[in-house]
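Hi, here's the filled form for the chain we discussed.

Project: internal
Contact: R.S.
Residues: 103
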Amino acid sequence: MLRRRLHELAVEGPVFCDPYRPFLYVLVPPGTDEEWPRALDPMAVACLGGTRPYVHHVGVPRLHRAAPPGPYWLTAPHTAARRHTDPQHLRQLLEAQAAEERS
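And the returned structure, exactly as it came back:
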């Protein structure tokens, strides 16, 4: 279901999830965290990156892992249409969702 929804939303970069936590991890280009809007923080959306003073590290699943148990790829890097998800497209999707939840 998640893979289908990502396809419908045209999220074309690598994405993985962790069934033990309610998170999706969407890979975006380096430096995206420098421009990421803080307005999405209340939605529990964070852009983890290497901009000081906040340097983050996230463990990723092995490339072949496509199902639980443990973290697994919904769209693995070697099968994704793009190397990274377009951060502007992702931001538009998230802002549209936030607006829908507010109304």
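Let me know if anything looks off before we file it.
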